[in-house]
Amino acid sequence: MFNVKSIPTLPVGIHCYERGVYLRVTGHSRSWLYKYQLNGKRRELGLGSADQPLSAVLAKVAPLKALVAQGIDPKDQIAQEKAEKKAAEVKAAMPTFGEYADHAFDKILYLRSFTSEHTESAWRRDIRLLKEAFGKLRLDAIHRDDVAAFLRQYWTTKPRRGQDLRMRLYGILNVAKGEGLIQSNPAEWKGCLDASLPPMGLVRRTVPVEHHVAMTPEDLRAVVGELWKEDSVGAMAVVFGALTAGRANEYVGGRWEEIDLEENTFSVPQARRKDKKPYPHMVPLTRQLLRLLERLDTSGDYIFQGKGRSAVCSVSVLRAIKRVSGRDDMTLHGMRSTFSDWCAKNEKNFLVSEKQLMHAVGNAVFQAYQRDDLLEQRRKLMQEWADYLLPNV
Fold first, then answer.
1. Is the CB of residue 215 less than 8 Å from the CB of residue 225?
2. pLDDT tens, position by position, 184-241
3. Which of 47, 61, 66, 74 has the fewest CB atoms inside 10 Å of its own CB, making it the most exposed?
4. pLDDT > 60? residue 70
5. Would you tell me how many other CB atoms lie within 10 Å of the CB of residue 336?
6. What digits encode the pLDDT tens for the residues 326-339?
7. Taking the CB of residue 274, how many other CB atoms lie within 10 A of it?
8. H helices within 252-349, ranges in order?
9. What is the pLDDT of residues 274-313, one digit of tens each?
10. Do the beta carbons of residue 150 and residue 132 sit within 8 Å?
11. Cβ proximity of 193 and 147 under 8 Å
């Protein structure tokens, strides 16, 4: 035992002041300790520097002794109080879904590197809808039942829409989970929503998948024949798309420098390739396509020159096919399906037609060995297709 006046002169070691209260002296410091025994184990807690008044030290010890008397370990109690305090701080700082969604989407854009402006705009549109549903809720307050209730309005009637919305919501909340804001993702399917919603495979048995509207080959031939009679840039762009079976973004923004009249090819650069492979996709130019190019204005940079220095607006191109087909639901992408159907009905080589569509065929091993773009085979196929659509050109 020692008194307060002797504290500055105590030698190195641990000195008892009273039961459970000790002073530790080292070569550099003096500090108070509370030493106790619980369930046969000896433990100790630091009480702070010896510079503090003894009354303050004893005030700290009193509640600790009371806990030990109740069989409660003070260390566990302190750890629990710290955890509760931290949880309260996190809860107070927890953003709402509306506050967090844009930040999460910026991160998703960086991680996913979307290759299509349509994909990005679709995400933005759906995030606006998700903000309406969950915007005022804190991230940690969104639960499985909330997500399931929101998705039910689409899940069995518009399954593709429902699946898209689930994946968008999952993506936003997954960023929050990765940043440590939430511990689990309530938009997760396995082990979460699968207990509240029927599997999509079962839903799709009763609700057909909505594909792009496509004409029959016969109807497309009639439409292309009518558009060929026109001189508008939009009409010519539709004919070009039909004859090449390309995606609209591949040819609507095409440049004259991408046309090679010696090799009779149109080169789609990496920037406009959906698969982003680091080399251009070579499109063979048929007799009909060469005749079409002769009819276009070559004074600008673009094959299908719009107003000013820009390419023709894709809306103008879409408007042309809708007008001539007489169907407001018609799409440019549907012409690719028509080409694929024609190839299948006429027993054309599947690999050659898929190469023309810029589709990946087979597994990774097959693709690793099958690298040739089959340009000459595609040239023959596309001439047959062009002769079918425009036999008199």
1. no
2. 999 999 999 999 999 988 887 776 555 556 789 999 999 999 999 998 999 999 999 9
3. 66
4. yes
5. 23
6. 888 888 888 999 99
7. 14
8. 287-294, 314-325, 334-345
9. 887 888 999 999 999 999 999 999 999 999 998 888 899 8
10. no
11. yes
Q: Report d(CA 255, CA 275) in Å as an integer.
A: 20
Amino acid at 331: T
Handedness of CA 119, 124, 130, 135 (dihedral sign): positive
Of 90, 196, 108, 87, which Cα lies nearest the Cα of 152? 196
Give the tokens for residue 242: 């039909």
Collect contacts of 257-266 with beta carbons under 8 A, ≥24 apart: 257/301, 258/303, 259/285, 259/293, 259/303, 261/290, 264/290, 264/379, 265/375
Provide the β-strand partners of residue 34. Answer: 21, 45
Q: What is the mean pLDDT of the chain?
A: 90
Burial status of residue 11 (CB atoms within 10 A of its CB: 0-12, 13-18, 19 or more): exposed
Task: Give bridge partners of residue 16 from the DSSP assignment.
Answer: 22
The rounded distance, in Å, linking the Cα atoms of 133 and 168 is 13
Handedness of CA 129, 133, 137, 140 (dihedral sign): negative
- 192 CA to centre of own chain: 20
